[in-house]
Amino acid sequence: MKQLYRLSSFIATNITAVVLLVTAMALFVPSSFLWISSSSITPMLGVVMFGMGLTLKPSDFKPVLMRPKDIIIGELAQFLVMPLVAWLLCKMLQLPTDLALGVILVGCCPGGTASNVICYLAKGDIALSVAMTGVSTLLAPVVTPALVYLLAGKEVAVDMMGMFLSIVEVVIVPIVLGLAANKYLSRFTERVTPLLPMVSTLAIATIIGTIVSHNSANILSCSLLVGVAVILHNILGLTLGYAASRLLGLPHDKRIAISIEVGMQNSGLASSLAATHFAMFPLAAVPGAIFSTWHNFSGSIAASIFKKLSQSEHSV
């Protein structure tokens, strides 16, 4: 069992390499993942969310009550910066409707599940990171459809109730089940928790592989344009998240947490919503797939930069 735990830790630590390898395989050898149906994305994302729920306890949400200012700043940055940056990039780059919808979906989703790991590697405030991920995820069933409707409703028909139910099904229900299992099946949870990083990493990689393989031709045909949008979206999110929290006087470790939470989106959810509710726009799933790959790569780089900044601040 110890060897399995070590393998889990190794795979999670090398999530960037795993994601890049899977993306390359799915992009250039689509048959390696084409056998997985697009309809499998939703249950796989549910597995990731269930794993997140298993790692949470009600006490993890105490920071929301103890430090409401930090959470409010973080959530405002999350749901203002990323959606607005997405919309502005779509206008500036004149993205076609399909791709613009995909970029906006990514911007309107809650924080990504890998953000807590990146925050840990970056020496940020992990409690704040976990609380922000939890709160933004709980807000997502209402806030995400509303933002998508506000920013894209004039261009496409947005089924707000359908998106609400989808997010509840794929995000909220698995997390609640994970919380319940953590509380009532604690012995089981203790045994499987060390394996969750591996399970989540492989599930995320498989989701990305599935999305990329089914859209490989589309991605290759529009990779430069959407790649620029995705990279700018992510970098601006990281930068503006840090700048906003610094401007409001938060300490360095909290700035790191907010920066990473804002910049790293649940892009798997964005792709799932695109496939479920916007099937008439096949390219809408592409930005989420590219973002999933890129933000793990950029997150690793950001973690190294933030870690060095933390060391330099402590040495002063």
Features:
mainly alpha; 81% helix; 316 residues
Whole-angstrom Rg: 18 Å
Query: Helix proportion of residues, in percent?
Result: over 70%
How would you sum up the major sheet? Answer: none
Number of alpha- plus pi-helical segments: 16
Helix-strand topology string: HHHHHHHHHHHHHHHH
- The coarse silhouette is globular
Q: Give the beta-strand count.
A: 0
Distance between the termini: 43 Å
Strand content: under 5%
Low-confidence stretches: none
Mean of pLDDT: 83
Structural class: mainly alpha
Question: Can you describe this structure?
Answer:
With 316 residues, the chain is an all-alpha fold. It is built from 16 helices and no strands. Helix 2 packs parallel to helix 12 and helix 15 runs antiparallel to helix 16.
Topology summary:
Layout: H1 2-13, H2 15-28, H3 31-34, H4 41-54, H5 62-66, H6 68-92, H7 97-108, H8 115-121, H9 126-152, H10 160-184, H11 186-192, H12 196-214, H13 216-247, H14 252-263, H15 267-277, H16 286-315
Helix pairs in contact: 1-12, 2-12, 2-16, 4-10, 4-12, 6-7, 6-9, 6-13, 6-14, 7-9, 7-15, 7-16, 8-9, 8-14, 8-16, 9-10, 9-14, 10-11, 10-15, 12-16, 13-14, 13-16, 14-16, 15-16
